Amino acid sequence: MERTNRDVRTLITQIAAGEIMLPEIQRGYVWKASQVARLIESLYRGYPAGSLLFWKTGQLAETRGAAIGVPQALPRVLPLYLLDGQQRLTSLFRVLTDHPDAQVVFNIETEAFQNQSAATRRNRKWIKVYDVVGPDADVFAIHGELKDAGLAIPDPEIGRRLSALQKITQRDFHMEVLHDFEYEEVADIFVRVNSGGRALKTTDLALATLSARTPGFLGQLEAESARWSERGYGALDVNFLIKALTLSLSTTGKRLASVAKLTAASQETVEAGWGTVRRGIARVVPLLEDRLLIPTTALVPSLAALHPLILHYGRHEEGAAISSDVENGLLYWFLAATARNRYGGASDTALTQDIRALDDQNPVAALLNNLGIRANGISITSEDLAGRNHQSPYLLFCYLAAAHAGATDWWDGGPISGGVDRSGKPQYSLVHPATKLRNHSAKYSSAEINELANIVFVSEQTAKNIIDGRSPAAYLQSVSLSDRAAHAIPGDPAVHGPEGYRGFLAARRALLAERITALLNQFRPEFLTKDAVATKGGTANSLVLAGYSGAGRSVLVAQAVAAGQKWIGWIDPSDLESALDAAATGLASDVPVGDETAPLRVDDENGVTFGLGPFVVLGSLDQWRTAVKDAFEASQPLTECPEPSDDHWAAEPKEFLLSDAGMRKAS
Predict the structure, then answer these.
(1) What is the DSSP letter of 567?
(2) Which residue, 129, 91, 73, is CA-closest to 8?
(3) Which of 102, 185, 572, 616 has the maximal Cβ count within 10 Å?
(4) Radius of gyration (Cα) for the chain, nearest Å?
């Protein structure tokens, strides 16, 4: 092992020249802007920034492109393959080459670092790091401009801080270079090193091992993912495919085959499993598109529900016939599992049961039995939709109700499937705009305003040019009666004004519930009785997140009801945002909630749990960010903020899904 040191500028030059490359076993670039700013701050303050691990070999190694925004040159010497330090070096390259996603700025007065914003652009005390360290930097001119900015620090101190900022490119990194190791040995070292630091996900570890044993395998996974991304199914990414490949192995004991078993499997077994996954996806995606009219995975609440379908179809040879009864039954199960939030909690336990059910003589009946559906089917009622918002699994069903009714966009007349934005999410608007409801004398709450029953799937153009902040009474005359009906808009004019909003919600919930139940019954297996029964019961639990602001302060309030008791907790939204940023990197946090702290944890699938009083609340990282954003979009005065609970919740907390927040659910 060779040990040496190189400064930041030299390392960046080597990356551009292709003399530092990423081996295929590396995961993608995942750092957030806040992490990049913290790295630059560490270098500025002279803090340790860690060492770098490289591999040098004479053999040809599979590589992956670095996320630096420009192509690397062909190396003139044997390259160094970067094993540990990708996130840091990629971030430094981006900052020092003015990458649009790495616009780190420095406050000369407070010595703070952050990513560029509209506010920092207007404030002369903030300077872009690139302007000081870039190849064309004119530090003398910058110094002169800062002298005229009314700073609270003396001129010599301005010069000292600019000089310290310049010197970040001269900071040395300690390097260790492995020589004469085989690819599989290097992959093992890579796994060990990264498991000891910022923990890799299990899928990353599997990729490292599989790539070492089968060079080019990652490329196959990425090509398959890209194929479905072009069809709107972008969530079928490399991590999803690795999970599907793991599930293609037989189950053992009470648990699914683990990633460890996948990496220990023979090449022939992995190839057979990969064939199963590819065949399954090739049958399932067109089925979802053509039969259910789902245009994008962004509508699917839990991708875990796709795995049993993929494995069932993948076990059949390409082109093998599947009876219509089985196909309909599998789609019925998929919809029922989504409605029941089958994979909202401990998904591996549920997947173990459902993958095993595929071996049953009647797999559809076995799958439905796992859901508790034996003789009676399920129906959706108005109560099921009450209090739900856009994070609810029922968003999919409301979309499907409109799509199967032939609903079109009110602006261009095209199908609602065309209203998908660049991120792959369906576009929608509120039938009754929030601006007409917030200050109404009826005192509608933000939860009421953002109810699922107030959402209509129309384009941004419709929202701007037809709805335009007006009540339905003012714009619905421009929408045909047939299309109003297709979107399940109640016809009674009395509910089209703000004063009739609660009547509108009740009427639309009833229409949507009837449509959704009818859709379910289209795929209903014949062995179920004709009269669907919706099972209910239990004690009502609830969780509502609301934002309060005033006097320069913001508070996120969590109001929970469980076992007939109420609990209220205050959270500083900046504390929660910081914890979510840390969760994005795989780190757990403790978030202050009132006078106590609550654990915020993240799992391998980016699921985030947050302890709030009587509940351990589970949601995805995106769901948590959206929940915080939504809470403050309809922010209420801080003077109306309810007082937090004084007593600690002594009972064992129960699991609660974030998608159910804002509503009451049976325990």
Answers:
(1) E
(2) 91
(3) 102
(4) 28
| Nearest alpha carbon to residue 172 among 92, 289, 260 | 92
Structure tokens at 148: 């005229």
pLDDT tens for 487-542 read 999 999 999 999 999 999 999 999 999 999 999 999 999 888 654 444 444 456 88
The pLDDT value recorded for residue 346 is 56
- 182, 212 Cβ separation under 8 angstroms: no
From the number of C-beta atoms within 10 Å of its C-beta (0-12, 13-18, 19+), residue 606 rates as middle
What is the reported pLDDT for 501? 97
Task: Show the beta-strand stretches assigned E in 110-219.
Answer: 113-115, 126-128, 172-179
Per 3-state DSSP, what percentage of the chain is helix, strand, and coil (rounded to 5)? 45, 15, 35
* pTM of the shown model: 0.70
User: What is the C-alpha to C-alpha distance for residues 164 and 406, in angstroms, rounded to an integer?
Assistant: 63
Query: Tens digits of per-residue pLDDT, 16-65?
Result: 999 999 988 787 888 988 899 999 999 999 998 889 999 998 877 778 88
Whether 204 shows a pLDDT value over 70: the answer reads no
Model pLDDT, residue 292: 96
Kindly report the backbone phi and psi dihedral angles of residue 329, in degrees, each rounded to the nearest multiple of 5, phi listed first.
-65, -40
